Amino acid sequence: MNKQILQITQRIINRSKDSRSAYLEKIAAEKSTTVHRASLSCGNLAHGFAACGKEDKARLRGVNHSDIAIVSSYNDMLSAHQPYHSYPQIIKNAIKETGGVAQFAGGVPAMCDGVTQGQPGMDLSLMSRDVIAMSTAVALSHNMFDGALMLGICDKIVPGLLIASMTFGHLPTVFVPAGPMPSGLPNKEKARVRQQFAQGEVGTEELLAAESASYHSAGTCTFFGTANSNQLVVEVMGLHLPGASFVAPNTPLREALTKAAARQVTRLTQQSGNYMPIGKMIDERSIVNAIVALLATGGSTNLTMHIIAFAKAAGIIINFQDFNDLSDAVPLLTRIYPNGHADINQFQQAGGMALLFKELIDAGLVHEDVETICGRGLRRYTQQPVLENGELKWLDGATSSGDSEVIATVAKPFKNDGGLKVMKGNLGTSVLKTSSLREGSFVIKAPAVVFEDQHQLVSAFQAGELDKDFIAVVRFQGPKARGMPELHKLTPPLGVLQDKGFKVALVTDGRMSGASGKVPAAIHLCPEAVDGGLIAKIQNGDMLLLDGESGELSLLVDDAELAARQADTFNVNGHHQGMGRELFGVMRRNLSSADTGACSLFDDGL
């Protein structure tokens, strides 16, 4: 094992000693020596299986057969989740063949950031993660279940399901993906058309045609944003079957993997004699593996908050500095858009997860001796699934890259670090993704132009007011101010200005899309403006330094002058009303800072 990664892992173990011990005691107390429904009264149990068929009722009356919960984010508007429509019956049939029963325990909401980008509904996006966690808790609260299958893919859905799964850590749990849509219009071309539209060179019809050619069928979007980063992280933690993450939906192999996932969870229940609950399976080493894989692939910055949140649900304390220090030890091994030209299907064709696992394991960059849903050891994940004469098998995966521009080697990486930098200075602490930055754009010293809404920046750009070197400050976007909406609308105009040769960057207490990258963006700034952050005192023309090499983020204004300044206050101006936002006030006010997961679910007793 890499010594630096071992040291960071031990640091996390030491930091988490008390909270992890308390967590393990909690899930041990929730374990049952028989089926969980055995603790229910006759009336409870009768309600629990009232709608079941005769055969399932007979099985559930006894104590010899497992009952598996299905929790799904299915809806038919989201392309990534639409394939889940047929999964419950496939799963029920597969589990019935093992002698068990599967029940659809509950659905969780699933919103699409792609639909809500720049819209009022985006203010609910991050908070929806906590709603998903609570919805999953309601689904599992009946205590009927001996294991769980989680069906989810996209941005906040998987982290919400993970938070809940860790909370119900006494249950064996398997995550079931649905796969990416076929490749459409290349992501680079889509980005080009977006920039043309931002400059007025093409109209709405041309833009919609390009977007529709990119997002064109059932399945996950093919760029390496938060959704596909989620899938990679879940597989690296051993919660997917090997190679399951990026198999296309509605294919025989995809259906075979879904059936296999259903059967696999029954092999982990108390009744199987091979009990492996998710809370015991996922430990500090598993979380470090997740971060390493995210960094090695240049994944979404949203996961910096999500990993902190779901790790905390398992009693494991992670912080931004852990990401920073692991990034120093981990080379960048993939170029997937926005960090390169390829999409996730091309990554799969170049060797995919099996090859990535091989590189990381052979170089000692991940902990190999961890538990997974397939047993102990990550080496199993260097295999890939295939169908041979209708039978699902796993064969050894690629040992070398099928496209060296998409997957590199540890010996000759794309970058020597993982491309994530924690920025610190008098403004506070933030995160900068460097893996897709252009040479020469790592250090920017320029005057501030202050905005309190991304639409204000777009209007200034359209008015020709931003043709200059500057650092955009977009504030009052943090968790407690607005729920931390993504600021993806800023990507095209700032990209246009960068292409014109201007030195531009972004500083915000909000967040950017997992698809953003080439413009330097110090995001997730803590403390946020409404929590007393210095960002609330920045004025137009103030000099700022964003140094992606040293990690310094500073407001270059005399301390005495700053002390004399009044901080600007948040003008709510309707941001908490409309599109359901008025229902989320209590949650919004209780969100923690970004560096502690931007979460509303935990109290000091965890």
Q: Can you give the helix content as a percent range?
A: 25-40%
Unreliable spans are: none
The amount of beta strand, in percent, is 5-15%
Q: Count the helices. How many?
A: 23
Strand order of the largest sheet: 9-10-14-13-12-11-15-16
Q: In total, how many beta strands? A: 16
Major sheet: size, sense and barrel closure? 8 strands, mixed
Label the structural class: alpha/beta
* Structural domain tally: 3
Radius of gyration: 24 Å
Mean model confidence by pLDDT:
95
- The rounded distance between the terminal residues' Cα atoms is 31 Å
What is the global morphology? globular
GO molecular function, one term: 4 iron, 4 sulfur cluster binding
Function: Catalyzes the dehydration of 6-phospho-D-gluconate to 2-dehydro-3-deoxy-6-phospho-D-gluconate.
Domain Dihydroxy-acid/6-phosphogluconate dehydratase N-terminal: 68-379
Pathway: Carbohydrate metabolism; Entner-Doudoroff pathway
Detailed description of the structure:
The chain folds into 3 domains: 3-182 and 217-396, no CATH class; 183-216, no CATH class; 420-575, Glucose Oxidase, domain 1 (3-Layer(bba) Sandwich), CATH 3.50.30.80. The longest helix is centred in the first third of the chain and has 16 residues, at 125-140. It is globular, with a radius of gyration of 24 Å. 37% of the residues lie in helices and 14% in strands. The chain is of the alpha/beta class. The protein has helices at 3-15, 17-30, 42-49, 54-61, 87-97, 113-116, 125-140, 157-167, 187-198, 204-214, 226-236, 252-266, 278-281, 284-296, 302-313, 320-329, 344-349, 352-362, 454-462, 479-482, 491-499, 559-564, 585-589, and strands at residues 67-72, 101-107, 147-151, 173-175, 371-372, 375-376, 383-388, 391-396, 420-425, 428-433, 443-451, 470-474, 504-508, 521-526, 543-547, 552-555. The two termini are 31 Å apart. The model has no long low-confidence stretch (mean pLDDT 95).
